[in-house]
Amino acid sequence: MLIANMSPRTMAKTTDTGWLSHALVEDEEAYEVVGYDADHSKQFWSWSKPEKGNFAFPVYLQADAKFHKEVVPPTGKTIAMVDCGHTENHPYIADSVLRIADLVILHMSPTAGDWERIAEPEDAKPFKDILASSAPLRATGRKPETWVLLNRTVAN
Predict the structure, then answer these.
(1) What's the pTM value of the predicted model, to 2 decimals?
(2) Which residues in the chain belong to E strands, given as ranges?
(3) pLDDT digit string, tens, across residues 35-54
(4) CATH number of 2-150: 3.40.50.10330, 3.40.50.1980, 3.40.50.300, 3.40.50.1100?
């Protein structure tokens, strides 16, 4: 399974990707995880290094519009976790990742600003349209399943 962690511009996507990756490694199902940093910031990759986070799984740099040609989606109990760059700023990388993603986790804060970035941004393609435009490029002909993860929420 290849899970694409995406957002328009929300903060905490890389942190969420790291936590979810570690949870999968530690799960009783014993998933194998491989990470891909498809963001020019290189944070996910940097955090995985021994001098920083010393992750128990490899993270590869892959911020490339040819992601779908260079990455083979895993099978079995291996899960590829992809930390994508902000879709508004890197639409070609997002398009490429969406061509092979099994699941998209859309990271957002429960704010009007984040909702507007997804549904009707001022000067970018809406995330819902980015998802829809991926369908004809995918083997299934359908957009990938998409979940929303609310982050930076305030308790109560």
Answers:
(1) 0.92
(2) 2-6, 32-38, 59-61, 78-84, 103-108, 145-150
(3) 999 999 999 999 999 999 88
(4) 3.40.50.300
